[in-house]
Amino acid sequence: MLGWSREDLAEKSGVSRPTLADFETDKRKPYDRTLADIQRTLETAGLEFIPENGGGAGIRFRERKAPAGE
């Protein structure tokens, strides 16, 4: 959604590229703290996590407010 590479996420979240790769291939299970770091990074970038609501959990862009005067 953000157009980030694994390298971008690693740099911004402080989670190493090999660690992210291991999560993607189920070689390792992430610690809660690591998941929180990744989620915080994505939220800071403008994404919003949507809880399970009968239609499944998800993610979307937060509502963007138009600049004043628009």
UniProtKB/TrEMBL annotation:
Which InterPro entries does this one have? Cro/C1-type_HTH (IPR001387), Lambda_DNA-bd_dom_sf (IPR010982)
PROSITE patterns given in the database record: HTH_CROC1
State a single Pfam family of this protein. Answer: HTH_3
The HTH cro/C1-type domain sits at 2-49
> Region entry Disordered: which residue ranges?
1-28
Bias regions of kind Basic and acidic residues — which residues? 1-11
What's the protein name?
Answer: HTH cro/C1-type domain-containing protein
- Organism name: Methylobacterium cerastii
